[in-house]
Amino acid sequence: MKKMSKILSLVLAFMMAVSGFVFAAAEEKYQVGVCQLVTHEALDAATEGFVQALKDILGEENVEIDVQNAAGDIPVCGVIVNSFVSKKYDLIMANATPALQAAYNATMEIPILGTSVTEYGVALGIDDFTGVVGENVSGTSDLAPLTEQADMILELVPEAKTVGLLYCSAEANSLYQVKVVEEYLTEKGIECIRYSFADSNDVSVVATNAAKNVDVIYVPTDNTAASCAATIGNIVLTEKTPVIAGEAGICRGCGIATLSISYYDLGYKTGEMAAQILKGEAKIEEMAIAYAPAAKKYNKEIADALGIQIPEGYEALEG
User: Fold this and answer.
1) CA neighbours closer than 13 Å in the CB half-sphere of residue 290
2) What pTM, to 2 d.p., does this model score?
């Protein structure tokens, strides 16, 4: 009887230990830092999607998400991500290229996922980029098919002879997009003129110069342009110069059409990747950069104001 009692005690002790381990595992909390470059529609949506994915997959009670915004000040991205590193967060999400670059320079240990980054090879200075960064970095790209965006210029403004390429010179991925579109259009006999601004203080002057001197303007996916889209919109409407935009947020402010992705969906995909990493289901160094499908959309208000006829196959932007 004593022997049976001893065995029962051991079994109960084992069961309590196992249940305690399961309970502790269930209660494990992950700490995630989000560094967002600036407030505008696209980046806000990406962060929202990322946060929601983590809550959906890990459970809201099991993840603590520290969202910080650099308010467009690139050096502040470094301050933010360094604070994440010092707090030993489990993962960093970098929203936009300067945020990714800051995180990449801050740690080689903590997993880093980028989003709203156009081309990772350009952003991180990787030659002959194959689609996998390796090390502790992966993420999602907001790159839409650039030559298809250029084709939209030819389709919607067929009489155009000159195209102004309006972008921020401080954003490496903006220059990458401009180069691709410029090369494509030049081969088709279209004159392309670059109009770059250093920061938001220069946007009005540079945009006015472009709108007065070209037939149509192309604005790539560009964070500074996105934050100043309404300013650009007022200028191009006054000059009656149509704009093809790299993403929907910019298009709402100043464009007639865009070939754009859903930034919420892009952020959500990034959150799914983060959950896999945190749960030990995937190794970040093996994760390829993920992309989102793009759709043709148009801004009815601006298109109507400029007398631009939108053909079938375009979806009206909401909001």
Assistant:
1) 21
2) 0.76
